[in-house]
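Example 4.3 (complexes with small molecules)
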Amino acid sequence: MSPSALRLVGIDAYYGPAQALFGLDLEVPTGSVTVLLGRNGAGKSTTMKAIMGLVALGQGEIEVGGESITGWPAYRVNRVGVGYVPEERRVFAGLSVMENLLVGMHDPDVPSQARWTHERVFDLFPPLAALRDRLAGQLSGGEQQMLTIARTLMGNPGIILLDEPSEGLAPVIVQQIVTTVKTLSAQGMTVLLSEQNVRFAAQVADRAVVIERGKALLAGSMTEISNDERVRDAYLTP
Ligand code: ATP
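Answer. The structure with adenosine-5'-triphosphate bound is encoded below.
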């Protein structure tokens, strides 16, 4: 059996003296779309930051494709093919859409036919093509979200981490993000996303992990998890 794309075993993570993750376990199978479900403050963002080496770790092990990356800084994690789109969706406001994409470009050992180019990114996000010369700071929230995902893809990741990609966006943009995640998955990418809304998650994810108070409480197929009463009570509004 091929190793998981990502594996976290017993991760403790800290912000200064405050512990945010408590022995968190997580398995992201290669090629899956796995969603981290949990309320505000449960530890979803911290889990992604732990993978990216952006929080202090205590105990635990993190592996990418079976190789340990525990304690690695973000740039090194990125180089082994992990792309990260943080919740804040930062763009370079003073650069154009096209320039933002060029900043994100780098070429690990990806065969040229599989490499991301601006043309391929514009196919995925048609609205961005028309905005290629626009300053990123002048884009709407939804357009900025597309741009941050697009810029991350230009780094040719094999795994992409999307922190609450639908948060605060208009329904039409949320549908665009659903389509994007499905397309990326169909092209073989492994996706880990975080979400508070089970309905959105159910449209894209095949696996789900419920995080509560810095621990993984439940893990299973999206169908199993969304039919679990505890999950329904906590995350589905009647
Ligand atoms: P949200 O949807 O609000 O981002 P989350 O599930 O992603 O929720 P985290 O942001 O990972 O939750 O937060 C986990 C815990 O870590 C919370 O108790 C939070 O208060 C704490 N925390 C997060 N960021 C910091 C920080 N920069 N400094 C101190 N504590 C933090």
